[in-house]
């Protein structure tokens, strides 16, 4: 990911130089102020900025994921998809189970490592998603089926049901699916990392 340096008497002047040379509008650039030298008697004020083109970031993230996992001894390929303008990186590997981990724990850790690295490199929080062989999508569909099946059971028996412990992302999926259900409601109970969702009947 190429970083370009520009200087000017003001930050605005340095940004203008970047826009002209890269032939880009400002909203397509990631701009980080590197230093500011105050002017003196014989020296004029100088501002230095570092500029990255936003379009270069997804390719860099993809290459970083591949390198990171290769260094861990894994053979992977990464497919880049745009999901509602948020880049989505789908990893296909020779050991999906290891990459995902129990309840997606390793996948979450990988996402955190990559996110922290990209934030350090760009100076900005960049939104993107990482998945392994569509695990998250399959898991969401599985949780949706589970929530609807349990809701029907609770509505029929009027007996609450405790689901297995889940991370906050998975619990939120269950809550969202049943939030408008007229016969049941949901609550999270227990202590992290073993919090779980309880599906309870509404009173008639």
**Content-based structural category:** alpha+beta
Average pLDDT: 92
Helix content: 40-55%
- Note the total helix count: 6
Provide the gyration radius in Å: 24 Å
DSSP strand content: 25-35%
Largest sheet: 3 strands, antiparallel
- Span between termini: 60 Å
**Shape assignment:** elongated
Biggest β-sheet: strands ordered side by side in the sheet: 1-3-2
Describe the structure.
The structure is a single chain. The chain is of the alpha+beta class and 204 residues long. Helix content is 41%, strand content 29%. It has six helices and nine strands. The protein has a three-stranded antiparallel β-sheet with strand order 1-3-2, with helices on one face. A three-stranded mixed β-sheet has the order 4-5-6, sandwiched between helices. It has a three-stranded antiparallel β-sheet with strand order 7-9-8. A hairpin with a 6-residue loop joins strand 8 and strand 9. The protein starts with a strand and ends with a strand. The model has no long low-confidence stretch (mean pLDDT 92).
Give a concise summary.
The protein has helices at residues 11-22, 57-71, 96-100, 105-122, 135-157, 168-178; strands spanning 4-8, 29-37, 46-53, 76-83, 86-93, 129-132, 161-165, 184-189, 196-201. It has 204 residues and is an alpha+beta fold.
Question: How are the elements arranged and paired?
Answer:
Layout lengths: L3 E5 L2 H12 L6 E9 L8 E8 L3 H15 L4 E8 L2 E8 L2 H5 L4 H18 L6 E4 L2 H23 L3 E5 L2 H11 L5 E6 L6 E6 L3
Parallel strand pairs: 5-6
Antiparallel strand pairs: 1-3, 2-3, 4-5, 7-9, 8-9
Helix pairs in contact: 5-6
């Amino acid at each position: 990911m190429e970083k370009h340096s520009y200087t000017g008497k003001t930050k605005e002047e340095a940004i203008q130089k970047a826009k002209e040379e890269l032939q880009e509008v400002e909203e397509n650039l990631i701009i980080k102020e590197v230093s500011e030298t105050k002017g003196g008697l014989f020296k004029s004020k100088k501002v230095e900025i570092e500029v990255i083109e936003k379009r270069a970031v997804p390719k860099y993230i993809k290459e970083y994921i591949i390198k990171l996992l290769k260094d861990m001894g894994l053979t992977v390929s990464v497919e880049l998809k745009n999901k509602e303008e948020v880049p989505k990186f789908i990893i296909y590997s020779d050991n999906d189970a290891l990459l995902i981990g129990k309840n997606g724990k390793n996948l979450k850790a990988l996402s955190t490592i990559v996110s922290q690295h990209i934030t350090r490199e760009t100076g900005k929080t960049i939104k993107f998603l990482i998945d392994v062989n569509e695990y998250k999508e399959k898991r969401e569909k599985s949780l949706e089926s589970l929530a609807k099946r349990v809701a029907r059971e609770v509505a029929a028996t009027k007996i609450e049901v405790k689901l297995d412990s889940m991370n906050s992302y998975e619990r939120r999926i269950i809550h969202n699916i049943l939030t408008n259900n007229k016969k049941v409601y949901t609550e999270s109970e227990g202590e992290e990392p073993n919090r779980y969702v309880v599906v309870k009947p509404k009173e008639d």
